[in-house]
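Researcher: We're reviewing a set of sequences before deciding which ones to prioritize for further study. For each one, I'd like a predicted 3D structure that I can look through quickly. This is Carbonic anhydrase. If possible, include the structure in token form so it fits the rest of the review sheet.
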Amino acid sequence: MRFVSMIIKDILRENQDFRFRDLSDLKHSPKLCIITCMDSRLIDLLERALGIGRGDAKVIKNAGNIVDDGVIRSAAVAIYALGVNEIIIVGHTDCGMARLDEDLIVSRMRELGVEEEVIENFSIDVLNPVGDEEENVIEGVKRLKSSPLIPESIGVHGLIIDINTGRLKPLYLDED
Ligand SMILES: [Zn+2]
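Model: Here's the predicted structure for Carbonic anhydrase, in token form for your review sheet.
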């Protein structure tokens, strides 16, 4: 039997007493899609800083808010299936992806028995350091705007959020 960690057990136990106000009637047809980082410090901070709540935006997260093919596919679904017409990439200061220790990651992968070939491909695909967080946001904006899947009528903006204060700084605003 698969070992069930304490974390998931705790979550499930807590959830027994959890009751959320029933929002099944909530209209959730937001026009906004946010692409951001999976950093745990963004939980709650990002929503408050942007002034958004449940049902207000589609949110796509990954390590380092990298605009890769998967993100572009999700953005396309948000646009064509869900009516989104504005996309904001929100990078953040002190992003872990800007200072990945590739040697450490590779040695941990070896320790945990990942095959060398898999490690090599992972290194090429994933361990490209983001470099500068602000440049990474601009790069993401460029990739979205140049993607044939994203029509020109969609607003694509780039911001960076201060991970400590929540202050937003515009890096690129798509103004017609
Ligand atoms: Zn990050």
